[in-house]
Write a structure and sequence with these properties.
single chain; mainly alpha; 2 domains; 5-stranded mixed sheet; 22 helices
Length: 477
């Protein structure tokens, strides 16, 4: 029975890995990706490969890790390289789950089982399926950090290297590095903890005040309280907590009841918390020192007024899931010590809860989203190329030259790397009067904007040369 269960786990793990590697690529191949947030990476990495222009790596968001991807683009400038590396990072995360479980529980069966739970978890899957973000690197880096920090060896150099890598992933990951250092302080690794914390504070100051002022100015607009008669140019996701970062922190610390109420009276935030702690749930609370590292991630998602922050099918939980999962493994060690004779019952509970959560939210064939083709971006039809898909690609290659030094404009919901590899890309309605070519696919637009695009098409027919028109697809010059 045990051998059959192990074989079952191995088979399903391999199957999930195939989904993780190939389904995102199929989605891009069938033209079901978006410029935000996939094409924008492909576009600017290609610009770096052509011109060595790295402004976007540091000024929009602080993501110097993109230099490594840029070097890869100099060799193979393909969006599939991005997806492969992203899927590889998610796969490596599973390896660290295996190592951490062996380290804590000393059981290969439990290690395989928890890797299976990990690869079925929707918050893991969306790190590979939700276009592309550097946030996905938090999974292997944080899990590796917990694994090495829980070893009896000092691992000082390795742990500081992990802190340094966190600095390069995103500006918010600098704060995660700070809280990881605080966790190390509780773990009595004083040297690396103190040095890591102080260095993280310095890096945060340098990044926000000197290196990346663009995103710092943007983040401040999220806090400003604009007059009710004046529309804010950006959604103010955190302005209910204060007019500045200082006011926000002081208000949150002095009004815990209001914070608690704002979180637990919102059903979407409650579901988010439940899924983030699944399948371990309260077991993760038996390792509270690890959960310290999730503080920035939980603060960013749960304190935001932006609904997308707590949607399971986004990437914002990358700073949370590896922490709660690692805490669950460490907490499970404590539970099994106390309830050794209930091991099978505990495993069965984790097994069925994993299946339920995965069915409810996963984008893979074991999840219901895979069969909802009308209301989400993860239905099975998104992965099947059609004759129309090939006809669109053929028309684009026929009508638009392969030159780099030109400009194109298209809707956010339509992305093809042949277009993204032009020097200037506009996302409609920007670029209507500037772009050399305008591409519109009415099958890949926001349904609420259909009338706008129908009117735009009529306008463009009068002002530009129509190169291609078939099945609601248009190319204008």
């Amino acid at each position: 029975m045990k051998t059959k269960f192990i074989n079952f786990l191995k088979f399903w793990i391999i199957l999930q890995l195939l989904f993780i590697f190939f389904m995102p690529m199929l989605k891009v191949y069938t033209l079901h990706s978006h410029y935000w947030d996939f094409g924008v990476f492909d576009h600017f990495l290609y610009i770096f490969a052509k011109e060595n222009n790295f402004y976007w790596f540091l000024k929009n968001h602080f993501r110097p890790i993109l230099f490594l991807y840029g070097l890869g683009y100099k060799i193979l400038p393909s969006p599939y390289l991005l997806l492969f590396l992203q899927s590889l990072a998610v796969a490596v995360s599973g390896y660290f789950v295996y190592l951490l479980t062996i380290q804590q529980l000393g059981s290969k069966l439990w290690a395989l089982f928890l890797v299976w739970c990990f690869f079925l978890h929707p918050m893991v899957l969306y790190q590979a399926f939700w276009d592309f973000h550097t946030d996905h690197l938090l999974l292997p880096v944080l899990l590796a950090g917990f694994y090495f920090s829980l070893q009896k060896k000092s691992n000082t150099i390795i742990l500081f290297a992990i802190i340094a890598i966190l600095w390069t992933i995103k500006e918010s990951a600098v704060l995660i590095a700070l809280f990881f250092s605080l966790y190390l302080l509780f773990s009595k690794r004083y040297k690396v903890a103190i040095f890591g914390a102080l260095a993280s504070i310095v890096v945060w100051y340098l990044v926000t005040h000197f290196i990346g002022p663009d995103f710092y100015r943007y983040s401040n607009t999220l806090l400003e309280k604009w007059p009710q008669t004046q529309a804010s140019p950006f959604p103010s996701f955190y302005r209910q907590w204060g007019d500045s970062y200082t006011q926000m922190v002081l208000f949150i610390l002095s009004h815990p009841l209001k914070v608690f109420t704002s979180i637990f009276t919102n059903i979407y935030k409650d579901i988010f918390i439940f899924v983030a702690f699944a399948p371990f749930l309260i077991i993760s609370l038996f390792a509270p020192s690890l959960l310290i590292v999730a503080t920035p991630g939980f603060a960013m998602t749960l304190l935001s007024a932006q609904p997308e922050k707590v949607m399971i099918y986004h990437h914002y939980h990358a700073a949370i899931l590896p922490v709660t999962f690692a805490a669950g493994i460490v907490g499970l060690k404590q539970i099994l010590k106390r309830l050794a004779n209930q091991e099978k019952i505990i495993m069965a509970f984790l097994f069925f809860l994993t299946l339920i959560v995965s069915w409810a939210y996963a984008p893979t064939p074991n999840g219901r989203y895979f069969y909802w083709t009308k209301i989400n971006d993860y239905g099975y039809d998104r992965y099947i190329p059609t004759a129309r898909t090939y006809a669109i690609k053929e028309a684009i290659h026929r009508e638009i030259p392969a030159r780099y030094d030109m400009s194109v404009a298209f809707p956010n919901g339509f992305y093809y790397s042949y277009l993204g590899h032009k020097r200037v890309v506009y996302i409609l309605p920007r670029g209507i009067d500037k772009a050399d070519f305008i591409i519109i696919d009415l099958h890949r637009i926001d349904r609420k904007k259909r009338n706008y695009y129908l009117n735009l098409i009529q306008k463009l027919k009068n002002e530009r040369k129509l190169l291609t028109e078939f099945q609601d697809f248009y190319i204008f010059k």
